[in-house]
UniProtKB/TrEMBL annotation:
The chain crosses the membrane at residues 58-78, 84-107, 119-137, 149-171. This is histidine kinase. Keywords: ATP-binding, Coiled coil, Kinase, Membrane, Nucleotide-binding, Phosphoprotein, Transferase, Transmembrane, Transmembrane helix, Two-component regulatory system. The keyword Kinase applies. It holds the Pfam family HisKA_3. Residues 1-21 are annotated as: Disordered. Its EC number is 2.7.13.3. The lineage of its organism: Bacteria, Bacillati, Actinomycetota, Actinomycetes, Kitasatosporales. It is an enzyme of class 2 (transferase). PANTHER family: NITRATE/NITRITE SENSOR PROTEIN NARX-RELATED (PTHR24421), NITRATE_NITRITE SENSOR PROTEIN NARQ (PTHR24421:SF10). InterPro entries: HATPase_C_sf, Sensor_HK_TwoCompSys, Sig_transdc_His_kin_sub3_dim/P. It catalyses: ATP + protein L-histidine = ADP + protein N-phospho-L-histidine.
Length: 450
């Protein structure tokens, strides 16, 4: 994984002032280098000047004191790498009245780092005690005792408390900023994941909507177009032999073509329409979840009330009559009485029978077909079974084009309502389509209709 410079800089800043750097250094920015070098030079100059008095008091050459002070002051340049060592060096030279800047900056660095608070408190206590003792010893004995004590305590506190308190504040602020930065990064990652998931859900919803529209157009148009093809073939065969029958077939073809065009126009009108002003947007996940179930509005006409008859079980007789007119022997058997199903259930049941009859026209024209509908408690069952294709109607052409989506669409419609769907060949060589659709309670049916 490639790490950008900004990410490396952020990581070093979060690690604290004593954090190391890849490659052996411990500075993460040029500004830090300039600051530490400047502090080290200032501390060296201070300690070198204070080394003159130390050399005289110790009876050493002045040059030795100056060099010793310069070396001690230069230790401040390592405060980010070894802050504890810097404080200890400052404590060590406190009796020589040397290293004020070294001790103050060292205590600040320790307090602002991520070192244990016990270690910080111990070093601060040692510094306080050292400055207190040195001040008491160095103060002239002629000064009053209480004033000497007050001066020593004040000097020790002034030498120790400000850098420690400031370091604690800066360290706490750094940790707070780190926590806020990590939280912001976490929120950014979560938002990115949510955006990716929303895009996936939207894409899934679009695909589901495409499949639903394709299934609806197939169910609405394919049946009538199949009948039109059968009637057109029959019309061609009897045009010269029986003109009256040819006229009737031509009229049927025209009616079915107009109905198919009307239904197609209504559906395309819905696809072109825009949402009403002020309508609340529907989330992609909810839209995808309910898309296969809700009744669509097409130009003010509900899906269950298309031209040519409503898509309800009560219209099965008309549907069967159209197939009979096309020359197919169809028997309709209905068991029980319909208690009145929700529109989505009736529409799905009607579409299953309609598509099954369409498949008969396409693949088994002329075969005897039996349509059974059973109204049971809590469910409605339907079965469409055709015998092997024995003979074709006059002029009919077998093997009409098929896209292979009819059975898939029926299965999707039924399973979306929690039903069962089975389709397959029979032993005699025919084909059977069976479906059982449960009837939801009144409350659930109302939810599906919303």
């Amino acid at each position: 994984m490639t790490t950008t410079g900004e990410e490396r800089r952020t990581a070093v800043e979060r690690a604290g002032p004593d954090a190391g750097h890849a490659g052996g250094g411990w500075w993460h920015r040029w500004r830090a280098v300039v600051l530490d070098v400047s502090l080290a030079l200032a501390s060296s100059v201070e300690c070198a000047a204070e080394g003159v008095g130390f050399a005289r008091d110790a009876g050493l050459p002045v040059a030795v004191g100056v060099v010793f002070g310069a070396l001690v002051g230069s230790v401040l340049g390592f405060r980010r790498r070894w802050p504890v060592a810097v404080v200890l060096v400052g404590l060590a030279v406190t009796p020589a009245l040397m290293g004020f800047l070294l001790a103050v900056v060292g205590l600040y660095t320790v307090a602002s780092s991520d070192l244990p608070r016990r270690l910080t408190g111990a070093l601060a206590g040692m510094s306080l005690a050292g400055v207190l003792v040195v001040t008491l010893v160095r103060t002239s004995p002629e000064v009053d005792g209480w004033f000497r004590l007050f001066a020593a305590v004040t000097t020790a506190l002034g030498h120790t408390a400000p850098p420690v308190l400031l370091g604690l504040y800066v360290g706490a602020r750094r940790r707070l900023m780190e926590s806020l930065r990590e939280r912001a990064d976490s929120l950014e990652r979560e938002l990115q994941l949510l955006a990716e998931r929303a895009e996936e859900r939207a894409e899934w919803a679009r695909n589901e909507e495409r499949r639903r529209i394709a299934r609806e157009m197939h169910d609405v148009v394919a049946h009538r177009v199949s009948l039109m093809v059968v009637h057109a073939a029959a019309l061609q065969a009897v045009a010269l032999k029986d003109p009256e029958k040819a006229v009737r077939n031509a009229a049927l073809v025209g009616d079915m073509g107009r109905q198919a065009l009307t239904e197609l126009r209504e559906m395309l009108g819905v696809l072109r329409s825009t949402p009403a002003a002020g309508a609340a947007p529907v989330s992609a996940s909810r839209e995808a979840a309910v898309a296969p179930r809700i009744p669509e509005q097409r130009g003010g006409v509900e899906d269950g009330e298309e031209s040519g008859g409503p898509a309800r079980l009560s219209a099965l007789a008309e549907l069967v009559g159209q197939s009979r007119a096309a020359g197919v022997v169809v028997e309709l058997l209905e068991e029980g009485e319909s208690p009145g199903y929700p529109p989505v259930v009736e529409r799905t049941a009607f579409r299953v029978v309609q598509e099954a009859l369409t498949n008969v026209h396409k693949h088994a024209a002329g075969a005897r077909t039996r349509v059974r509908v059973a109204h049971r408690e809590g469910e409605v069952a339907m079965q469409v079974e055709n015998e092997p294709a024995g003979g074709l109607p006059a002029g009919a052409e077998p093997g009409l084009p098929s896209g292979g989506n009819g059975l898939l669409g029926m299965r999707e419609r039924v399973t979306s309502l929690g039903g069962a769907f089975v389709a397959g060949p029979t032993d005699p060589g025919g084909f059977r389509v069976s479906a059982v659709i449960p009837v939801p309670p009144v409350a659930d049916a109302a939810a599906l209709a919303e």
